[in-house]
Amino acid sequence: TISSVLMVIEHHSTDDVQRHDRKNVKHMTYIARAYVFMARNITVDGKMNYAIRIACAGVSKSTHSLSEIRPMWMKCLELPIVLFSDHPKEQPTMFPITVTLCHQQPFLAQTRDDDVGKTVCVYEYMRRKDNMGRWEPFKLNPQWVQLKGGRYGSKVAGEVLVAFELLHSRDRGVPECAPRMMWPAASEEDFDEREHFSYLRKATLHVAMYGVRDLKLKKTPASMQPEHDLAPRVEVRVKKFHSDKHAQEELRQHQEALAQQHHQAMLANQEFNMGPLAGHHHKNDQKNKPPAGMDDDDQAFFRLGFKYREVIEGGDKGNKDDRLNFWQSDALGKQGNLNYEILQVKRKKLLLPDKALLQPFISFRVLERPTTFSEYKTLGSWLTGKFEQGDTDKHDWQVMGEYRQSLSESYPCKWLHDLYNDASEHPTESDIRTALERAKAELRAKGRYEEESAQQRAQAIRREREKLFQKERQRMNAKKVELIEPEAKTPEAVDTAAWPLALRNARDQGKRENSIPLYGKTLHVLNMHRGGSLKPREGEKHHKKDRTQAVLNDKLESRRNIGKKHVFSPDFYFENRPLLNGFDLQDPDTNTKDWHYYHAECFGFVKAAFKLTDGWAEENEDSRGLADEKEDVQEDEIDVDWEASRSSTDSDNEDRKEPAKGAKQGAFGGVTSGLTKNFDKAMKGVLGNMEKAVGAMAGVVGADVQKQERQDAKEEQVVHAKLDSKRLASSFGISDELDQFAFSVDEKDPKHFARRFKGQNLPSRVRVRIYFVKAICIMGKPGGQDPYLRFKLGNAYDVSMRNMYQPKTSTPSFYRVEERDIRIPEDARLQVDMYDYESAADMVGSMAGVFEERLIGSTTIDLEDRWHSKEWQYCSSRKAIPPEQRPLYNSEMPGQNCGSIEMWVEMLDSMKASEEKATDLRRPPEEQVEVRIVIWTCSEVPLLDGSGADMYSDVAVSVKLECNQYRGEEIRFPREQETDIHNHCTTGNAVFNWRIVFPRITVPTESCTLDITLKEMDSLSEDIIGQVTLDIRKYVEKVGRDMESVNSKADLKFMHIHREADGKTQEDVHQAVEKTSAGRVQLEMWVLTQEEATAKEAGMGRNPPNDHPPLTTPSEGRGWGDVFAGFPLELPSFGIFWKIIPLILFTLLALVVLRQIKLL
Q: How much is the pLDDT for 473?
């Protein structure tokens, strides 16, 4: 049952108001369109067969099912729904739209839909005409929305990209209301905003394939050799975004039928049922077909293939520098994994959507050769692959693993600027960064669909109309049509820039005949300060030789370290990317998983780098050599600022001299801030007249010399401009170094890329120095661990330090340096394991004689990336590599942090190892500090004794130090110290002014805490009122490290200590105590070095020396009246005798005195 209620509430100050007629609400048919693009990050395991179901107002439709990790439907679903409204032009009462991701499974003769996740979207805007009778501009606003699933519907089960549209059913056949084409248009020329959502742009994909690592080797026949027979293939794929020819032909026929049906219906003035593409007209059938020149190698993907070869292309097998390495390693829980060097660079023409929201992706797939008869598709391919050892059919190769990464963040800078920046001027690095952040924000999934507000929609409509107005204005200007003849303006004598009329006329003439610049500089350079053209001169930085750098709280290769203020910024271009099965995109910037310890999901690693460039390679001017660019320079094409060109070139040369500047440069480093071409043209006339006047002052300068200087400056500026345009046409963040040795490869020299990792850049033996400092163990046995280290360098070294285990500690300190000579890349995998020591006797008794010690955690370092990193080599040569706080993981508990180890690695040529000694790694000297605490007052103290208005408490505060490195007891400073007693506290405020002193605390410490307890002091017992614990280890460590005292004040709240009372359970006491406060304590703490504390000596409590600060004894709660106030001492009543008792006592006293003086 569908119900709808329309309520109208009006407010009037009087009753004599004529009521409006009741609204005539009736049901009408509307069309709700759901544009279902694609889904991603689906978390359901098992077979994939996904579809999207859209439901609204009792009507539902589904897309076709797709068996893909990232299904891309690109389907517009039309739902004819019945809604209620009082007028056809008014917005109806809209129902929520439910979007459900289904997993379709065959069930008997039908298909069963299992819901994976769903979301409820609210969309209420109905398309309508404006006051001028024109349809309001409409644009699709697709959004990535989270789909919630699981048992309670709170787990994110996937994400879907959807958009919505609502219109009246009678407007369904109007051409302006036709559904948008979801597949991108073939080119920008074929793109129409009224028909398409996006269009395809030409791009070139450059891929530098370094190699594959740790590929899991399956069981193979013994006759096969891994180096030759089992060599894998690497396939690079990019999803295509243009539909096939059959779909285009079907679309064309459908549109013709709908257009004819629409025309007949308009003549008959009747409604009819039209398909989802009614009234949709195309210019031609070629609109969505791939353009000429495209390699149509696959209907679904663009593909690139890489294969292992024994030698580099064009190399000599007898030359070791031309041979590509193959070796086996133990990793990912298996032995004998395969490793291959590939060292190839290839490129591929692509067509990608201009909208980054569609998130095209690149996939690196490693394919393995079939080894058994069941794995071959045909008998012929089995015979060929087994007996002739030739290449089998490409369909027989099986996918070992796949790595996927988004291409949206790698779009050329020009694309990002065109998509997110309205300004047309030359973009800066800041503009591209802003555009990139906007692209990333669009790609983040939202918790629910967010419909744009009425204000946002009005602004969008205003912008669209402004664009249409500008286009029309440009069209009219092109035809030189002027509606109103502008009035002729009389030129001013002096303009706003202080240019006289005569000079302006000379400037506009633009004549510059045989003019020689003054001293080789243009006039505006001599008379105008050009800020920012020169870089500030900086002296050489001082590099300390000691290990005082801050410790990184993460791995050195983590991308989260980029931009942080420390000495190293990672430039590892070929990091290990995991090969997975059944996983969607992996983001290297945010993914913190260490895939070395996901043995069930990871099947190896691929090492590759890629970038995108605008256009196709042969169509780009950048494909030509630098010499060709210089030869094409024409005299009249260049108008530059000579001084800016020279200064910028000089600054670039200075940057190249610094080795560290080559790594991780911005995409727009070195952009020249010269004057624009129009301004230079405007200056030509002035230069022609003014330079003649100053010719005598300048002297006679050789025309040939000046011409040569001018030509050199022009050539330098052309080179600089080409580099700048190259960065604009390339992916953001690609460093010049990577672009030079990997992507700017001459096809005539196939060894260019491999030469970067061979020959002189790679010595035969490399000395590795591993510095182990200390560690923290989280996962361990009860009673403390006995940790020790073990490390492996490839298959060459397996070193165990079991005899150096540290007993009963969770924070072991090693301070040990290990040196080994290795070969790169064969031994470049460093794995550090931390084990829990078990004696043989304990293991026999506990594990029935199975001698196996428990692994606490491990960490893996790729030394190959570090050796080939110029930034790392630069820091290593200056002993400036920061220590790493590397997390420890265990494959039995993947994803769970089991601790951390502080360490760092140095590498150098083994031939030079004797010349440069290892860094001196010593335990830090033991420092002693002193902690002083002054208990000033307590407030909100509970009153526990007495009754009624006479309630009070006798309270004191005790402080206990928990620290194994405390040595103050040797000089009679106990671990637990207590203040004096504040007696008979009736207001809840107690005063102490008492000093607590803990000297000789040795740092570093394992732990250092203070237990501060508020006690109620009875005559025969002590009761704890409340307690608070302070961890002061960081203060103690800071003073021991920086040798500077620390002072801090605090107002701490005591926590209740639950205890059972007489006749009451613990729950009753807990409920009673929670209603009252446990009190607060106001204290001040000083942490000083022991030398400073000795110079500023102070005693415990208020004992001498009572200084730093001096403490006074409070008067409250210390008198005899306060001490005996708690005892019930009352005299009996004597009635009338009470009045004469003083007289009797005085008389007796007088008699005694008289007796003593012998007067009686």
A: 77
